[in-house]
């Protein structure tokens, strides 16, 4: 089920990926896969911690042009092969983050004709944060990461 979107606070796109959804799910939920697609190249993911359960951690560390950026968050919803929701509003143990940015909602379903219908939603706490994310390049950045995800997941196919 696609959540109601608010054009003032939500950014989203839907694409069809030529990969079975169980592989997309695996890429998003196993730490060894995350560095292969999570942020646009040439930037790098240098560390990943996943505790795949509601309230479990989803922590990543990036190297963006030599600047180390840590992102800590938790899973809010985990529905295998269908729905993954995580946020940086809280960290593990439901500790509020000082400056939360967004909640990510990933929706997976079988695409007509094969592959996966992939919807990515970034939900923000206010219009200003949403606009900032859009100006940072949400569509290009998340779009590139999605292309990287598809390419990497295809390499895992038998």
Topology readout:
Layout: E1 10-17, H1 21-29, E2 44-50, E3 58-64, E4 67-71, E5 74-79, E6 83-87, E7 90-91, E8 95-96, E9 103-110, E10 116-123, H2 127-136, H3 138-155
Antiparallel strand pairs: 1-10, 2-3, 3-4, 5-6, 6-9, 7-8, 9-10
Summarize the structure.
By secondary structure, this protein is of the alpha+beta class. It has helices spanning 21-29, 127-136, 138-155, and strands at residues 10-17, 44-50, 58-64, 67-71, 74-79, 83-87, 90-91, 95-96, 103-110, 116-123.
Structure write-up:
With 158 residues, the protein is an alpha+beta fold. Helices cover 23% and strands 37% of the residues. The chain contains 3 helices and 10 strands. The strands form 3 sheets. It has a 5-stranded antiparallel sheet with strand order 1-10-9-6-5, covered by helices on one side. The chain has a 3-stranded antiparallel sheet with strand order 2-3-4, with no helix packed on it. It has a two-stranded antiparallel sheet with strand order 7-8. Strand 3 (58-64) and strand 4 form a beta hairpin.
Quantity of strands, as a count: 10
Strand order of the largest sheet: 1-10-9-6-5
Q: In this structure, how is the largest beta sheet organized?
A: 5 strands, antiparallel
In terms of per-residue confidence, which ranges show pLDDT below 50 for 5 or more consecutive residues?
none
Mean pLDDT: 95
Mind telling me the C-alpha Rg?
A: 15 Å
Helical amount: 10-25%
Listing every helix as H and every strand as E from the N terminus to the C terminus, the arrangement reads: EHEEEEEEEEEHH
- Strand % is 35-45%
- The count of helical stretches stands at 3
State the secondary-structure class. Answer: alpha+beta
What is the distance, rounded to the nearest whole angstrom, between the alpha carbons of the first and last residues?
30 Å
Which outline best applies?
A: globular
